TrEMBL record:
Protein's name in the database: NAD-dependent malic enzyme
Annotated organism of origin: Solihabitans fulvus
Cofactor binding summary note: Divalent metal cations. Prefers magnesium or manganese.
Key word Hydrolase present: no
Coiled-coil parts of chain: none
Binding residues annotated for a divalent metal cation, in chain numbering: E210, D211, D236
Length: 462
């Protein structure tokens, strides 16, 4: 099912005979082992040989090696160098600080730094609110992690989490002009994380928590929201919930159903699933049945943590028990944020007519989307190689743009819902169909629309 992609893109520099057939031999050899060539550049040429850079997408690191090995054994071919383009992109990191002011002479220096800066410090000391006016605070977000749940890779620690946080910061800047900076903490102790964020908060206009494992992430976010006078947002929870709820709004438009009449099965009650359920509940669906690794969540199930107890209290009106397959029967909507390959087309067939399936586990979804399409009316995944990609990039840049512009001190469910609706509404009526329920992540209308919605929701609150 997976196809070669740019995540495993390599450039192989080879020396080849200058014969007419050499280029064809090279490209067919790459094609034979399943590589997808994206560029073929002759970088040097001599009477008897040429030097060529072949850039191609592979499926995995092992597949990239297979491609190289195949070229190496071709007659007359010498492989000179292999560059992994993803590693090249990360050399020295992906972001930097640049000065917004010119420092050309002593005069500039005296105003940007001492002695002039002293008056700015005194102004802020006299009126702390001036920090938003006179410092980076008004446009800066801390991207905070403890490295305990890095992507789907698990507990890799703070240093290994840094490439993800840098990427996040780059996306903040690209899509919403927000200056975000990675803060990777060398602790996984809840109290230490809370204290560390509290201590750095004066610099920032918002805190984006990232890749912190559940259930610790729930307490950290809740406690920081109480303590800080800036918004705290755990993207793995709320960014996902915003995009899912926005996508669902459009999927329901496609099938002509009203959420208040829908039964929704949610598989995965961790960081993403819990936040999705909480936001969905704001729209009063007919019922939600939550399922985790231990089966359907219901009141009275043994061994539930406080989060699951809350979910059990607010979902599953009929008190059903059993497993995911039981939860799918007659469900109008399936939302999966759990684990790969949990069911097949035969279970989708047991869902209600015009079923909606969001199988979002990464990198492999709960059901192969091709299988899901056999019986579902709308299918979405987290993958970029299928239509309807549910991607948090649609939400977090615009959300923080709006929060920072509004000088928001907190974030509310109304703001999250406003952001979800804004994402949905970017897909205007005649563009909406079963294969296009969310806008592209590169749609430049998304972040401003989300920011505007969040600003308005923040203003309504004041
Ligand atoms: N596409 C997206 O936009 C997006 C966004 C967020 C999360 N995700 C994906 O969702 C998944 C969960 O992410 P998370 O951060 O909430 O993780 P998490 O570890 O906090 O939660 C995982 C949940 O899945 C449940 N689970 C695990 N195996 C299961 C099984 N076999 N059957 C039923 N439930 C099972 C666990 O009990 C837990 O409730 C990951 O694959 C993640 O990549 C996708």
């Amino acid at each position: 099912m997976p196809v070669p992609g740019p995540g495993y893109s390599i450039t192989i520099r080879v020396e080849a005979p200058s014969s007419a057939s050499a280029a064809g031999d090279l490209t067919s050899a790459v094609g034979r082992v399943g590589g997808v060539i994206t560029a073929f550049d002759v970088v040097d040429s001599h009477a008897d040989r040429v030097v060529v850079d072949i850039t191609c997408n592979a499926l995995s690191a092992n597949h990239a090696k297979d491609i190289t090995d195949t070229l190496e054994v071709l007659p007359g071919i010498v492989v000179r160098k292999i560059s992994d383009r993803t590693f090249l992109m990360h050399l020295g990191g992906k972001i930097e600080v640049t000065s917004k002011v010119q420092l050309k002479n002593r005069d500039d220096l005296s105003r940007a730094y001492t002695p002039g800066v002293a008056r700015i410090c005194q102004a802020i000391a006299a009126n702390p609110e001036d920090a938003r006016r006179l410092t980076i605070k008004r446009n800066t977000v801390a991207v905070v992690t403890d490295g305990s749940a890095v992507l789907g890779l698990g507990n890799l620690g703070p240093a290994a989490a840094l490439p993800v946080m840098e990427g996040k910061a780059a996306l903040f800047k690209k899509f919403a002009g927000v200056d975000a900076w990675p803060v990777c903490l060398d602790t996984q102790d809840t109290e230490e994380i809370i204290r560390a964020v509290e201590l750095i908060a004066p610099v920032y206009g918002g805190i984006n928590l990232e890749d912190i494992a559940a259930p610790r992430c729930f307490e950290i976010e809740a406690r920081l929201r109480e303590k800080l006078d800036i918004p705290v947002f755990h993207d793995d929870q709320h960014g996902t919930a915003i995009v899912v709820v926005g996508a669902l709004r459009n999927a329901l438009r496609v099938v002509g159903k009203d959420i208040e009449k829908c039964k929704i099965a949610v598989c995965g009650v961790g960081a993403a699933g819990s936040a999705i359920i909480r936001l969905l509940l704001r729209q009063t669906p007919a019922d939600i049945v939550a399922v985790d690794v231990d089966g359907i969540v219901h009141a009275g199930r043994d061994g539930m943590d406080p989060n699951l107890v809350w979910i059990a209290e607010h979902t599953n009106r009929e008190g059903v028990t059993g497993n995911l397959h039981d939860a799918l029967v007659d469900a109008d909507v399936f939302i999966g944020v759990s684990a790969p390959n949990l069911f097949g087309a035969e279970q989708v067939a047991t869902m209600a007519k015009d079923a909606i399936v969001f199988a979002l586990a990464n990198p492999d979804p709960e059901i192969d989307p091709i299988e899901a399409q056999k019986h579902a009316a709308v299918v979405a995944t987290g993958r970029s190689d299928f239509p309807n990609q549910i991607n948090n990039v649609l939400a977090f840049p615009g959300v923080f743009r709006g929060l920072l512009d509004a000088h928001a001190k907190t974030i509310t469910d109304s703001m999250l819902l406003a952001a979800a609706n804004a994402i949905a509404d970017v897909v205007e009526g005649d563009r909406l169909n079963a294969s296009y329920i969310v806008p592209s992540v590169f749609d430049s209308a998304v972040a401003p629309a989300v920011a505007d919605a969040v600003r308005k929701a923040a203003a309504d609150r004041d």
